[in-house]
Amino acid sequence: MIKKQATASREGKPNLYDRLGTLEDRRRAEGKRHELRLAIMIAIMAIMSGYGGLRPTQDFIKKNEKELLKLFHPPKDRLPSRLTIARILQAVDFDSLNKIITIWFSEQIEPIGKEWIAADGKAIGGTLTDAKNSYQEFTGLVSFLRVATKEILSAGRTNSKKESEIPKLRELVKALGLEGMVISADALHCQTETAKTIIESKNDYCLGVKRNQPKLHAQIKKKY
Question: Is the pTM of this model over 0.85?
Answer without folding.
Answer: no
